[in-house]
């Protein structure tokens, strides 16, 4: 594998890792590479892929989000991907590929950029990089699948396996906020057979599923629903490697453990765990505990101003670029106190990539600070991109969720591991 490494020089540990993988390649089905931030996992993935393709084995690299996929494409120009039809602009018609297919012709224009990319990724010998949903939508299963930031895979699979109970179908009340609220409402309608079936679903799923009251797209329209996501997928068919195509699975993450492998349904396979050290000395990556106030939902309003003042002090002290991790709800509250400070960059769900690209390109002396939500993984904050980070809230899952309460009391080790993973990902 080493001759296929894409760069002239190895970072510490990369050559040894590739040597270990090659020596053990035929002895294991699953390789779990636990490598910290700064190790350089992407060139290792590129080397494995090129090595497999040279052996006439198809190989696909997967990322959990488009941010990380873009970093692969920027670093390794030979890799190919296919994006959502909404991301392809047809200049001649001044519309996207999807709009063209909806309004003009359902198969799209001849030799469009989308079609070229689609045909490329479908070929076995193409070095493919894609996100999780591209992989599933276009059936890109290959002999070898490499998953970067693999700790996030369980969440994606839970989303896919989730049961959705639509409000417009069951007519449950808008003020229902918990499963308990729904069960009490259903109890008032003992003769409604449809609602009694819903009661059975809820009661059988409550402690084994994560329950979410959300708004999702349903046949092109936003609709309210209850989403029941299974805690474990060990007893379910996994679409990422079901069937006979996928022979080798490489999972790369700084935060993936044996409990994750069990919940992914891989513990019965031949699994090799490979741990590598960080190339960055511990004294150069300190984690400082600086308590400001309780950031639980009920206490945020009381402490949010103090948090904002502390972030301004951090920005003034460092006078270099920084990155602040905050969930969307907390970021929206911080915005009110920081919006007048031009150094702070906020985003929403639709312009996240654009804001990150803007922040990434800004010089170190700008002192820019991005407040990022849902950006724990896949960030390339090397060198002058961001010299300091702040985590505004320890990511404890809410115990109001019956499934999380069940995890906390019946599987406390996994609950604590879940929190630790999120915290480690955010801290880098």
Please describe the structure with a list of short key phrases separated by commas or semicolons:
single chain, 428 residues, alpha/beta, Rossmann fold, 3 domains, six-stranded parallel sheet
Q: CATH topology of the largest domain, which one?
A: Rossmann fold
- Count of strand segments: 15
Separation of termini? 27 Å
Please state the average pLDDT score.
Answer: 88
So, CATH architecture of the largest domain? 3-Layer(aba) Sandwich
- Morphology call: globular
**How are the strands of the largest sheet arranged?**
5-2-6-10-1-11
Sketch the major β-sheet. Answer: 6 strands, parallel
Fraction of residues in β-strands: 15-25%
Number of helices: 16
Radius of gyration, in angstroms, nearest whole number: 23 Å
Description:
The protein has 428 residues and is of the alpha/beta class. It has 3 domains: 2-79 and 127-157 and 240-275, Rossmann fold; 163-229, no CATH class; 287-393. 38% of the residues lie in helices and 17% in strands. The strands form 4 sheets. It has a 6-stranded parallel β-sheet. The longest helix has 19 residues, at 300-318.
Structure at a glance:
The protein is α/β, with parallel strands linked by helices.
Layout of helices and strands, plus pairs?
Blueprint: H1 14-24, E1 30-34, H2 41-54, E2 59-63, H3 66-75, E3 89-90, E4 95-96, H4 97-103, H5 113-122, E5 128-131, H6 132-137, E6 144-148, H7 153-161, E7 163-166, H8 167-170, H9 179-187, H10 193-205, E8 209-218, E9 221-230, E10 248-253, H11 258-263, E11 271-275, H12 300-318, E12 322-325, H13 328-338, E13 344-345, H14 352-361, E14 369-372, E15 388-391, H15 402-410, H16 412-427
Parallel strand pairs: 1-10, 1-11, 2-5, 2-6, 6-10, 12-14, 12-15, 13-14
Antiparallel strand pairs: 3-4, 7-9, 8-9
């Amino acid at each position: 594998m080493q001759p296929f490494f894409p760069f002239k020089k190895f970072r510490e540990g990369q050559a040894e890792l590739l040597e270990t993988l090659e020596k053990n390649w035929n002895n294991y089905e699953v390789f779990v590479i636990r490598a910290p931030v700064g190790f350089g996992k992407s060139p290792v993935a590129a080397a494995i892929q090129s090595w497999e393709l040279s052996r006439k084995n198809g190989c696909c690299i997967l990322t959990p989000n488009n941010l990380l996929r873009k970093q692969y494409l920027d670093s390794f120009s030979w890799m190919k991907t296919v994006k959502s039809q909404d991301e392809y602009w047809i200049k001649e018609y001044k519309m996207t590929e999807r709009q063209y297919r909806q309004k003009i012709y359902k198969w799209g224009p001849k030799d469009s950029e989308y079609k070229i990319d689609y045909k490329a990724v479908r070929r076995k010998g193409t070095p493919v990089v894609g996100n999780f949903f591209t992989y599933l939508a276009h059936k890109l299963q290959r002999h070898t699948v490499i998953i970067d930031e693999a700790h996030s895979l369980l969440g994606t699979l839970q989303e896919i396996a989730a049961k959705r109970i639509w409000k417009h179908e069951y007519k449950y009340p808008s003020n229902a906020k918990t499963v308990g609220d729904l069960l009490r409402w259903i109890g008032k309608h003992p003769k409604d057979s449809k609602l009694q079936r819903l009661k059975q679903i809820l009661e059988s799923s409550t402690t084994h599923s994560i329950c979410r009251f959300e708004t999702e797209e349903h046949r092109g329209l936003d609709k309210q629903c209850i989403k029941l996501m299974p805690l474990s997928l060990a007893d379910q068919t996994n679409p990422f490697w079901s069937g006979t195509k996928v022979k080798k699975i490489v999972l790369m993450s700084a935060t993936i453990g044996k409990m994750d492998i069990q919940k992914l349904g891989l513990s019965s396979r031949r699994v090799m765990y490979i741990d590598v050290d960080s190339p960055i000395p511990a004294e150069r990556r300190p984690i400082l505990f600086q308590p400001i106030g309780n950031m639980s939902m009920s206490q945020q309003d009381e402490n949010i101003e103090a948090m904002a003042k502390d972030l301004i002090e951090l920005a003034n002290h460092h006078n270099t670029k920084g990155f602040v991790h905050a969930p969307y709800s907390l970021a929206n509250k911080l915005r009110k106190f920081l919006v007048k400070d031009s150094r702070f960059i906020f985003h929403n769900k639709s312009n996240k990539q654009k804001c990150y690209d803007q922040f990434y390109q800004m010089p170190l002396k700008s002192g820019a600070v991005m407040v990022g939500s849902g950006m724990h993984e896949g960030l390339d904050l090397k060198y002058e991109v961001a010299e300091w980070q702040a985590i505004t809230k320890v990511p404890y899952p809410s115990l109001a969720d019956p499934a999380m309460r069940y995890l906390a009391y019946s599987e406390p080790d996994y609950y604590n591991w879940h929190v630790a993973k999120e915290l480690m990902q955010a801290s880098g």
